[in-house]
Amino acid sequence: MINGIDRSRIDAMVAQLSAAAARMETGSGLKRVSDGAEQIGSAAPSKIDFADALKASLDQVNQVQISSQQLGQQFAMGDDKVSLSDVMISMQKANISFQTAVQVRNKLVSAYHDIMNMQI
Predict the structure, then answer these.
(1) Which band of pLDDT confidence, cut at 50, 70 and 90, is reported for residue 107?
(2) pLDDT (tens digit, 9 = 90+) per residue, 30-57?
(3) Residue 39 phi/psi, 5° resolution?
(4) CB count, 10 Å around CB of 94?
(5) Neighbours of 46 (CB within 10 A)
(6) CA–CA separation, 64 vs 90, rounded Å?
(7) C-alpha closest to that of 64 among 85, 92, 83, 25
(8) HSE toward the beta carbon, residue 81, CA cutoff 13 A
(9) Which residue has the higher pLDDT, 3 or 12?
(10) Is 59 helix (H, G, I), strand (E, B) or coil?
(11) DSSP string across 83-99
(12) pTM higher than 0.70, yes or no?
């Protein structure tokens, strides 16, 4: 344990960050080679539809909130496998992801109003 945090939890967080980085690279046309270097992929990156990307991000926010709620319910029911710190961290992750989604929505609405108010 390092300052009250189990090594397996640190490894799990590093694995999550690596998976997120890998997901970000798949759309950029970069390909990770075994030694850690990046190469430009031979195939052109596929185009992502804005509506699909928006739906995927909202689904991810929803999934984070659902998992946080389930973790809180498990803790409230006395599950010994769930610690209070895990519950609080998952709740903060859900809150941050929701606040990010709200801010993105606000920016999109603002951009929409700006475009609609442009004179042609």
Answers:
(1) very high
(2) 444 444 444 444 455 677 788 888 888 9
(3) -125, 150
(4) 21
(5) 8
(6) 8
(7) 92
(8) 4
(9) 12
(10) helix
(11) -HHHHHHHHHHHHHHHH
(12) no
| CA separation for the pair 116, 110 (Å, rounded) | 10
Percent of the chain with pLDDT strictly greater than 70: 75
Whether the CA torsion 65, 69, 70, 71 is positive or negative: it is positive
**pLDDT tens track for 5-19:** 677 777 777 777 777
Can you give the C-alpha Rg of the chain in angstroms?
Answer: 20
29, with CB counted inside 10 A (0-12, 13-18, 19+), is middle
pLDDT at 83: 92
Tokens of 11: 């490894």
DSSP 5: B
Contact 97, 58 (CB under 8 A): no
Residue type, 18: S
Q: Is the pLDDT of residue 70 over 90?
A: yes
Residues 76, 86: Cα–Cα separation, whole Å: 13
